[in-house]
Design brief:
The protein is an alpha/beta fold and 390 residues long. The chain folds into two domains: 237 residues, Type I PLP-dependent aspartate aminotransferase-like (Major domain) (Aspartate Aminotransferase, domain 2), CATH 3.40.640; 141 residues, Aspartate Aminotransferase, domain 1, CATH 3.90.1150.10. It is built from 14 helices and 13 strands. It has an eight-stranded mixed sheet with strand order 1-9-8-5-4-2-3-12, with helices on both faces. Strands 7-6-10 form a three-stranded antiparallel sheet, with no helix packed on it. Helix 6 links the parallel strand 4 and strand 5. The radius of gyration is 22 Å and the shape is globular. The two termini are 43 Å apart. 45% of the residues are buried.
Length: 390
């Protein structure tokens, strides 16, 4: 069986984990938390990076920092993971979903303005598959109205937009280091503070509502409860496992990109023949090969494809069911404008296995079976056209 994902493992990671254990420091904000934060601040030119227990936690911190309250509206795409919405719903917000672009599966920047009302408190963008949203336009729209922008860059570590690391462009950025991501600590994330007016409060919220971070820096002689917050600090055990991967980030990135390019080159002929659609990387974007997907004809074709690949021992998955179609999405949100692409495109998309150190034989087996299905399917489609003509 070729799994959809295989968690990143580097032998060096055990050394860092062992060091954390040996030094009897496994609670949060220790040596490896600092090293990981500093690595990202340096390599992504981020103002401040705070490690968290998950990207969900980072989004929850962002919602508190933006002072989201009951009745506020937050604009975001419906095509995203539930955490993107939940973080703001938990603060009482009503989610305003807008349509996506069919080329990148990202929020359609030209649909945002029409969704803005006097109650709009934030715009949340999601960089799907590690490919950037059109951030210049989005930041221009938000800047003219004084609306903060949050980047859900869960899939975007090591991706760039016009030279800027994803997560560093909006007021706040959120990363994921879940085991399904390119770089992992099992469960974990980070919040990037790009507008430093949020920094002091972010440290407090992350430390259970206390000013303990300032106490540890020697800025105050004791710490106390000063605000709302929660336990958002990850264990040093987790963060130490991530650190070794960050040191090898370029090698991991290139390894994944080689898989992505192999898939693209082998399947490009089917795109030219109109059998499938492949990912599009707009000019100015550098992606991280977080995923490789194909778009098939429709939902039925995708279901047959997933079943076919499963029978061949290859695990392929589809992605999000649009949030606005869910029970909670209808309760806590609404769709602004027409759902022209969100549902239609989501039903066509299927993801192929991509992971670090994927063996050549595994890549070849995936492509061989994808091609076999597409050839079989295109012949069936051709016959259907013939019969319709008769």
């Amino acid at each position: 069986m070729i799994p959809f994902n295989r968690t990143v493992y580097l032998p060096s990671a055990l050394g860092y984990v062992g060091d954390a254990v040996f030094n009897h420091k496994l609670a949060g904000d220790g040596k490896y938390t600092k090293l990981c934060s500093e690595w990202m601040e340096k390599h992504f030119m981020a103002d401040k990076v705070l490690m968290t227990t998950s990207c969900t936690a980072a989004l929850e911190i962002a919602a508190i920092l933006l002072d989201i309250h009951e009745g506020d509206e937050v604009i975001m795409p419906s095509y995203t993971f539930v955490s993107t919405a939940n973080a703001f719903v938990m603060r009482g917000a009503r989610i305003v979903f807008v349509d996506i672009r069919p080329d990148t599966m990202n929020i359609d920047e030209e649909k945002i303005e029409a969704a803005i009302t006097e109650r709009t408190k934030a715009i949340v963008v999601v960089h799907y598959a590690g490919i950037s949203c059109e951030m210049d336009r989005i930041m221009d729209i938000a800047g003219k109205r004084g609306i903060p922008v949050v980047e859900d860059a869960a899939q975007g570590v090591m991706s760039f937009y016009k030279g800027h690391a994803l997560g560093t462009i909006g007021d706040l950025g959120c990363y994921s280091f879940h085991e399904t991501k390119n770089y992992t600590m099992g469960e974990g994330g980070a919040i990037l503070i790009n507008n430093l007016k949020y920094l002091e409060r972010a440290e407090i919220i992350r430390e259970k509502g206390t000013n303990r971070t300032r106490f540890y820096r020697g800025e105050i002689d004791k710490y106390s409860w000063v605000d709302i917050g929660s336990s958002y600090l990850p264990s040093e055990f987790n963060v130490s496992y991530l650190y070794g991967q960050l040191l090898a980030a370029d090698e991991i990135n290139q390894n994944r990109i080689s898989v992505w390019r192999y898939y693209y080159e082998e399947l490009e002929k089917f795109q030219k023949e109109g059998v499938i659609e492949l990912p599009i990387v707009p000019e100015g974007c550098i992606h991280n090969a977080h995923m490789f997907y194909i778009k098939l004809k429709d939902l039925d074709t995708r279901s047959r494809f997933i079943s076919y690949m499963q029978n061949k021992g290859i695990h392929c998955v589809f992605h999000y069911v649009p949030l606005h179609t869910s029970e909670a999405g209808q309760k806590y949100g609404c769709f602004a404008g027409e759902d022209t692409y969100t549902t239609k495109e989501s039903e066509r998309l299927v993801r192929l296995p991509v992971f670090y150190n994927m063996a050549d034989g595994e890549k070849e087996q995936v492509i061989e079976n994808v091609i076999n299905f597409l050839v079989q399917e295109s012949h069936v489609s051709y016959k259907d056209k013939e019969n319709a003509g008769k």
